[in-house]
Amino acid sequence: MSLITVLRPAAPHDCEHIYNAHRYSVQYTCTRSYNNRVLEAWSRLLSPEGYLDTMADSNKALWVVEYRGHIQGFFQLDFKEAQLDALYVHPFVHNHGLGTALLQRAEALAASEGLSFIKLYASLNSVAFYKLNGYESLGSAVLPLNREVTVECELMRKYL
Questions:
Q1: pTM, entire model
Q2: In what order do the strands lie in the sheet with 117-123?
Q3: pLDDT of residue 2 exceeding 60
Q4: If you placed Cys at 33, which of 111, 116, 125, 137 could pair as Cys (CB 3.0 to 4.6 Å)?
């Protein structure tokens, strides 16, 4: 990660950029682990406006990472549920430390809110990343994307 990387809370004007990072991550990174039916259902859940509710909720945090002047990733943390709801980095800038920086910031925020652990539902392509960062698997899980399509994932946890 370079000195020109910025981690900061998201603002409403960031929504389109967050959406782009999210959409490209699902479309390209998750394609190794999921079929087109799952990826299409997943993508239909995303919209630029979808991040505004999180920003307005005092029990949640939405942060972005700017790299080389552009938003390239984000995380969404639910303090009430002690859950990392999302962490995505644009696939064109993988392996630059942006995901790790986002995860460390999420963990620091969770600890500052008095949480003793974070749980998350990891997409199958991200399990190794979370294990490298100290998360343990609690077993397989299946989450609904809509009435017909579910996504396989892994429930994980890390004590802070």
A1: 0.93
A2: 6-9, 60-67, 70-78, 83-89, 117-123, 150-159, 136-144
A3: no
A4: 125
